[in-house]
Fold this protein.
Amino acid sequence: MNITFQVRGLSKGLSPSPFVYRILGKYGLTTILLRYLSGASFPSSKCWKKTVKTAIYEHEHFELKNRLIIDMSLGQFAAVHSEYVPCYLWQFSRLYRDQTKYCYTVINLVSKLFSHTYVIACTKCEINTDSIAVHNVMFCTYSSNIRHYMWCNLHKSLGSAAYDSLCHMCPRDQLIELITAFPSLNLTDKERVHSFKTAIRFLYYICR
Ligand SMILES: [Zn+2]
């Protein structure tokens, strides 16, 4: 770790560089450096690493939360990554190990959904689109059969009322519901898990 490496240099008689001050200041760790310089009392390696890890987590967590509040263009991103924690798909794959391969594929879909907007030709149907993720799942003629079965199965697992609510959303919002376990729909836990498993299984076949 850069901070550990730089600060260890102090114990070898090296002078603290502006880089050390700058990076420790960024993560609120300068008091430790000052304590070391005044009393030569530096935390153990294990304690230091834990302190650095905690400080970086708190700093990045605060920065992300702040950015999600201020930047309105990140509204949809916040629906998927609302916390500085692993994406819900990673957590789901840990809870249900048999779903891991589906979750991995859907993670790729998430990255495409939130990438920069640019026009690209679909490699399967050759139609130009400015959102390849939405096109692949919602519109690509190459996947029309699988898509048909996905919606039929989701109608069964969600129930008519929730399915109707889903159909009233725009395609992009529908896709976000599919990859985030339907947070806007009123479902029991059992219905949500079953429907999410259905969604990511079909998304896997559509996107692989
Ligand atoms: Zn296509």
Remarks:
- The longest helix spans residues 45-70.
- Residues 122, 124-125, 127, 135, 140, 142 surround zinc ion (CB under 6 Å).
- Residues 3-70 form one domain.
- The beta strands are 120-121, 128-129.
